[in-house]
Amino acid sequence: MVLVIAALMLALVAPNLVNLIPGSELKAFAQQSAALLRELRSEALNGAEPRALALATEERRYQVPPPLQLSWPEAVTVELNAGNLPGQPVSSDVQPQLVFYPDGSSNGGSLTLGGAGNRHYRIMVDAFSGRVHIDD
């Protein structure tokens, strides 16, 4: 009987645990975003063609080639700061994007993810190595 009551309590409380831990949704999304960037880098290395990530802000998702898709939660803001693509002039008309090249490099830049309570994560992409890491 005690186990049944404990299981019922856990079933009722578990879905709300994310709301109890501030910033957990943002942290999880930052980790998913970094994993997506690492996957794009890996695909560029293995497929011998550049792979890119841009923002589809109206749909609240990353704009990446299929089948990769990742939408961001309502409470999260996303800002993309990317380096210039080779041979492209600096222009406000060009949509910024992070590009990974087959040699392992990238154009470099960062994704800044913000959430409630002034909490944010910055995902940095190194231009020379294409490595992705999270600064919090």
From TrEMBL:
Pfam families noted in UniProt: GspH
GO biological process: protein secretion by the type II secretion system
Domain called General secretion pathway GspH: residue spans: 30-126
Signal peptide: none
Transmembrane in keyword set: yes
Compartments in which it is found: Cell inner membrane
Keyword entries, A-Z: Cell inner membrane, Cell membrane, Membrane, Methylation, Transmembrane, Transmembrane helix
Membrane topology: Single-pass membrane protein
Protein name stated in the entry: Type II secretion system protein H
Species annotation: Marinobacterium halophilum
Lineage: Bacteria, Pseudomonadati, Pseudomonadota, Gammaproteobacteria, Oceanospirillales
